[in-house]
Amino acid sequence: MNVLSDNFAMFREGFIGTVELTVLSALLALVLGTLVAAFRVSPVPALRVFGTTWVTLLRNTPLVLLFLAVTLGLPALGLKGWDSFWLAVLALGCYTSAFICEALRSGINTVPVGQAEAARSIGMTFGQTLVQIVLPQAARTSIPPIGSLLIALAKNTAIASGFNVTELGSVQKTLNAASGYNIYVIFLWIAICYIIITFTISGLFRLLENRLAVAR
After folding, report:
1. Is the dihedral of CA 59, 172, 89, 83 positive or negative?
2. Residue 182 — left, alpha, or beta (φ > 0 → left; ψ -120 to 50 → alpha)?
3. Cβ atoms of residues 181 and 3 within 8 Å
4. Residue 9 above 70 pLDDT?
5. Coil/strand/helix, residue 89
6. Where are the alpha helices (DSSP H) in the chain?
7. Is the pTM of this model over 0.85?
8. Which domains does the chain have, with CATH numbers?
9. What is the rounded distance in angstroms from the CA atom of residue 33 to the CA atom of residue 101?
10. Mind telling me which residue stretches traverse the membrane in this protein (predicted)?
11. CB-based contacts of 173, cutoff 8 Å, min separation 6
């Protein structure tokens, strides 16, 4: 217990940092993922190409490489002054958005084609059909895989510790460098913190899934 009690402020700061990183990256991933999913099913060829390219590149790029591209590439393009925390949010959000997109697209494919055709027959545009008819049903189907993706996102935040971001991974690195602490105890407390975060996400999505299942 002395590892936690002696360094409680550090653990608290790292825990809050991980939660903030997870929440903000998740919001960005959900917005981008929904937008790219709409592009992938769009009747406009250019948008479909963009969506396919986005998903293909990001799903097949290691996350560490994406972090390097963001932290080194953006300043090289003249976009300087970004805080390392927001660069981490950008990298994690973009990376996860590709997987969110595919989860939503799978949900879209479960919606009967006849519903979209009926919507078009009464004069609804593609955007109206997607937002009002297709996406609400696809979202219900996609809740379990999206929950799993956000749990993976929470664990992926540990990579940010290598890029000067304060979160649980950086706490582990700092304490490992200090003498007098058992490394296994440090890992145990870090693991417990991640378990709290992932169990919370899992519980929230289980409640959401049950609520929407009743609403159906």
Report:
1. negative
2. beta
3. yes
4. yes
5. helix
6. 2-6, 8-40, 45-59, 63-68, 74-76, 84-110, 113-121, 126-129, 135-156, 168-177, 183-215
7. yes
8. 8-212 (1.10.3720.10)
9. 4
10. 21-41, 61-78, 85-105, 183-208
11. 161
| Residues sharing a CB contact under 8 Å with residue 100, sequence separation 6 or more, in sequence order | 29, 30, 32, 33, 34, 37, 146, 149
Burial group, residue 51, by CB count within 10 angstroms (0-12, 13-18, 19+): buried
Distances (CA, A) of 150 to 9, 18, 50, 56, 129: 26, 13, 24, 19, 27
Instruction: Report pLDDT digits (tens) over 47-96.
Output: 999 999 999 999 998 999 999 888 888 777 777 767 888 999 999 999 99
DSSP string covering 105-157: HHHHHHS-HHHHHHHHHTT--HHHHIIIIIHHHHHHHHHHHHHHHHHHHHHHG
Sequence letter at residue 55: V
